[in-house]
Specification:
2 strands, globular
C-alpha cells in the first residue's frame, strides 16, 4: 500500500513538473514569435466578435454583399479607435512641448528647494529634464503609434482571411467529428464568440462612460484640452486594469503641472478613482452577469502576464484569452475546479 501510494504521488509530481515545463515553453515560444502570434491572436478575436454580425447579415442579403459590409465596418471601428487615441496623444504632446520651458522652470525651482534641504541627487537629475527630453518623449510616442498602425494593418489582413474561411472552417470541423480531446470545438467556438461579443459590449459601455466622466472632471476643474483627455481615457479603457489606471494617473499628473497645485491634482485623482470604482464595481457586473464573472486577481494576473509577453497588445488580449480558456475548460469535467477558482466561486 505504501509503495503504491508513493508511486502515485511520484507520477503526480512528474506530471505536474511536465505541465509547468510545457507552460513555460509555450509562453517562451509565444514571446519569441510575437510578430506572428500577436496579430494572429488579435485577428482571431476580431473574427469571433464580428462573425455573428456577418452571419446575421447573410440571413438578409447575399454573402458576397454581407462580407464587404462586415469588413468595412470592422476597418472603420479599428481606424476610429487608433485615430482617436493618436489625436488625443498628439494634442497632449503639443501641449507638453509648448509648455516645456515652464515645466523646466518649475522643476529647477523644486530642485533648488531640495538641494537647500540636503537632497543633492536632485541636481544630477535636473540635467536630464529639459526641452530636449520632452521632445524626445513625444517623438517616442509618435514612433510607437506608427508601429501600432503597422500592427493594425497586419491584424486586419489576418481578420479578412479569417472571415473568408470562418463558415467553411465550421463545416470542416463538423465533418471531422466536432470533438477533439473531449471538447466540442464548434460549440466552444460559438460560446466563446458570444462571450467575446458581450465582453466588447461591456467594455464599450464602460469606455464611453469613462470618457464622458473624464471630460466632465477635466472641464469642471479647468484642465486644458478636456476632449483629448476624454479620447485617451475612452480608448485606454479597452485595456483592463492598466488602461483605467493610466487614464486616472495621466490627467492627475497634468493637473499638477498645469495648476501647480496639489489640491487640484487631488480633486482630479479622487474624482477619477471614484468613477473607475463605480464602473468596475457596479456598472460592469450589471452588464456581464455571471457569464463573464472573473476573479479580479485572475484579470490582473493575465493582464500583466500577457503585457510582459506582447506589450500593449497582450494587455488587451489577455482577458479574452482567459475567457476562451475558461469556455473550453467548462467542457472538461476534470477542469471545472479551475473555473470555480478563476470566477471567484461563481463559475
Amino acid at each position: 500500500m505504501g509503495e503504491g501510494g508513493s508511486g502515485t504521488a511520484g507520477r503526480s509530481a512528474i506530471g505536474g513538473m511536465l505541465l509547468v515545463c510545457t507552460v513555460i515553453i509555450v509562453l517562451a515560444a509565444l514571446s519569441w514569435g510575437e510578430m506572428v502570434f500577436a496579430p494572429a491572436a488579435f485577428a482571431v478575436f476580431i473574427v469571433m466578435v464580428v462573425w455573428p454580425v456577418q452571419a446575421w447579415l447573410q440571413q438578409r442579403m447575399p454573402r458576397m454583399l454581407a462580407m464587404p459590409i462586415t469588413i468595412v465596418a470592422t476597418l472603420v471601428c479599428i481606424a476610429f479607435l487608433l485615430l482617436l487615441f493618436a489625436w488625443g496623444i498628439s494634442v497632449i504632446g503639443q501641449w507638453l512641448v509648448g509648455n516645456a520651458a515652464r515645466f523646466q522652470a518649475i522643476y529647477q525651482a523644486a530642485t533648488d528647494w531640495l538641494e537647500g534641504h540636503g537632497v543633492v541627487l536632485a541636481g544630477a537629475l535636473s540635467d536630464s529634464f529639459n526641452m530636449g527630453w520632452v521632445v524626445r518623449f513625444v517623438q517616442s510616442l509618435a514612433a510607437r503609434l506608427n508601429g501600432l498602425a503597422g500592427f493594425a494593418t497586419l491584424v486586419f489582413a489576418f481578420a479578412v482571411l479569417g472571415l473568408l474561411e470562418a463558415e467553411d472552417l465550421a463545416s470542416r470541423l463538423t465533418k471531422a467529428g466536432r470533438r477533439f480531446g473531449g471538447v466540442d470545438v464548434v460549440a466552444a467556438g460559438r460560446e466563446t464568440a458570444r462571450h467575446f461579443g458581450k465582453y466588447m459590449l461591456v467594455r464599450s459601455i464602460a469606455s464611453v462612460t469613462t470618457g464622458a466622466a473624464v471630460w466632465l472632471v477635466a472641464w469642471g476643474v479647468g484642465l486644458e484640452h478636456p476632449a483629448a483627455w476624454a479620447a485617451i481615457a475612452f480608448t485606454l479603457n479597452y485595456i483592463p486594469f492598466l488602461g483605467p489606471l493610466v487614464a486616472t494617473l495621466l490627467p492627475t499628473v497634468f493637473a499638477l503641472l498645469q495648476f501647480e497645485s496639489l489640491q487640484v491634482a487631488a480633486v482630479v485623482l479622487v474624482s477619477l478613482t471614484a468613477v473607475q470604482f463605480v464602473i468596475g464595481s457596479y456598472l460592469e457586473p450589471v452588464f456581464t452577469g455571471s457569464t463573464l464573472s472573473i476573479s479580479p486577481f485572475a484579470v490582473m494576473f493575465v493582464v500583466f502576464l500577457w503585457s510582459m509577453l506582447w506589450g500593449l497588445t497582450g494587455a488587451f488580449i489577455g482577458v479574452p484569452v482567459l475567457v476562451a480558456a475558461m469556455t473550453v475548460c467548462k467542457q472538461i469535467p476534470a477542469m471545472r475546479w479551475l473555473i470555480v477558482m478563476l470566477s471567484g466561486g461563481k463559475g
